[in-house]
Amino acid sequence: MTSNSFLQDIEKYLPLVGDVHIKTPLAYQATRGAVSVVNTLQMAAAEAYINGLEVPDFLLEGLFDSFMPVFFRYFPSLLAPYDWVLKETDHLAEGSKDLMKLQYDLPQGMLNKMLGDGQLIYPKYSMALWEKGASNLEQAQMQMLDDVIEKLDIKDGDRILDFGCGWGCVPNYILSKFPNVTFTGINLSHEQCEYMRGKMQDPASYLSSGRFTLYEGDLNDANFDQKFDKILSIGVFCHVGNLTKAFEKLASFLNDNGKVFIHIITVRTPNHISSVYTHQYIFPHGRFWNYDAVPSHNKDLKTIKRWYLNGYNYSTTFATWLKNFDNHQAIVKDLEYGMDYAKFRRIWRFYLIWFVRNFASCNGEYNGNGQFLLVHA
Fold first, then answer.
1. Given this structure, which CATH class describes domain 87-376?
2. What is the pLDDT of residues 35-59, one digit of tens each?
3. Which is it for strands 182-187 and 159-163: parallel, antiparallel or unpaired?
4. Which keywords appear in this protein's UniProt record, sorted alphabetically (predicted)?
């Protein structure tokens, strides 16, 4: 018996540590019991903060810096608050309407200020690439997209599908680089689609070139007259609950020799993770898939190459968003959030501070971004 198999055999009987999928029933139930305690403590601290408890940022940061490395390194099972996080759900995505309400249909004025809204880089709610020396957010987002172009091997004349196209930043940037590329974007958020429709009428935007088609709706209902040379999806798969069904659908849109590029938050722990806080206030039914999750699904699409991007990149991106959010309080405080603004601000500051520290934890080696290049299986 090798040392690894011996260790795994021992871990079957130990709660809290290692891969929860291999636990004996007793160890599994003990682990889930401990998770419920962690969930209760997490929400108690978060609710106290968002309901007015004065906590200096450095204390909040210190709390995250103390606990997150311990969880990532030794007790990753405690970071899966619900059983459904550990496996695929029955549906491709869960809680889509709640997600739109809490996250993507917020006042555009606030999102523009936080995420940035330039002539070429529209609001982009995903990781920027800082490790190549970018000096500001716009440059870091451009370098991230240049990196995607290279990895996906985009060629002029490609027909590209963007699954979850956000505010159209990715299509706009790539269309600016390739005069014969055509793009189709799928988006479930009506507010984001309205933003893009405005850009499609703006002569200064590449979305108005006639080479961009917008589909407002769910991936499950989408059908197209053509197949695509390239499909990309940046950030959306954190909201996809069933990789098998999603890959089956995307494969049906892909040319025989086409390629799919997926960029998601990913964790290099034995289990997928989430949190009760983000589930309630930020990303309903969202999860961070384990780094091996995408390659393990190879029925309709198979992974031929993958990359792990250190969490430093997303930590720095969140830190910039936090700074932007704080610097524009005079403007964003009077917008409509469906709740008292002081509470909304605390909800979002807790989330932003947490994720700055979360992605920086353990030198960014446990929690970062995964990128996957796939072709027909």
1. alpha beta
2. 999 999 999 999 999 999 989 999 9
3. parallel
4. Methyltransferase, Transferase
